[in-house]
Amino acid sequence: MFGFNMFHEISRPFNMTYRCFSVSMLPGNERQDVERGGKIIMPPSALEQLTRLSIEYPMIFKLTNKKTKRITHCGVLEFVADEGKVYLPHWMMANLVLEEGALLQIESVSLPVATFSKFQPLSEDFLDITNPKAVLENCLRNFSCLTTGDVIAIKYNSKVYELCVLETKPGNAVIIIECDMNVEFAPPVGYKEEEHIPRSADGNSGQSMDEDPAVMMPEPSGFVAFSGEGNRLDGKKKKLTSESESESQNTQARQSYVRGIPDYDFVIGTLRFIRNSRPPSAKEEAPAEPFQAFKGEGFTLRTAKSKN
Q: Domain named Ubiquitin fusion degradation protein UFD1 N-terminal subdomain: which ranges (predicted)?
């Protein structure tokens, strides 16, 4: 006689086709939590069918647009959609090149746990975030998986930042739930490294000027002590040894330049530009290395457990 356990239960994958819509088409209140993550909303009948199948948890699905052959992966947030419909985040529909009401194939899959990922911001505005690690770690809590080539959207301070997933390891699609994942950032699209010019303590760039500020000071008016010149006994004029000595005699009678004191003898119609004449130091004379905003090693991002 044949035993009752002769035939083992064979696990069958979940494979269905639904009409897809963006979250903005979902009836009821606006669901911003769906737009901020990488999970979809499926109908209740999908949950009933999944419970009858031997599906591994967490539930990960492969989304395929048969017309464009575009593929991505996602998790599920709720089973409250209308029958025959699924609701996706807007960025996910853009990756799959889907229109409202288009057919979408959904298949259950099993993915490896992530160990590495690399992101590239699509805007230089991402550089304004002071702590991108904390922002990314908080936003990825709403994601179940990542797919190489996808452009995900994260929201921070009422602003949406788009990041392209350049690379994932150990595969092109990975699970990011309860894992320690090394993360690196590539320079944003259109970003150009600017040369970093060192500045001195007074805020100047350290470049010296040829003209002495004392030369531009106004000549003193009224009585000036010892303003005359010496004469030789033989009646000949004194010879100057160098040009610098002559310049020093011309500027000796002028007022010394003091920064911050206005020129009270200013004459309307004249403009004087006084610049820093301090010679550059040895450190400033050395060529500066180009500024690299994304220079250095990556960091480890630790994701938390998902609800679904």
A: 14-112, 114-188
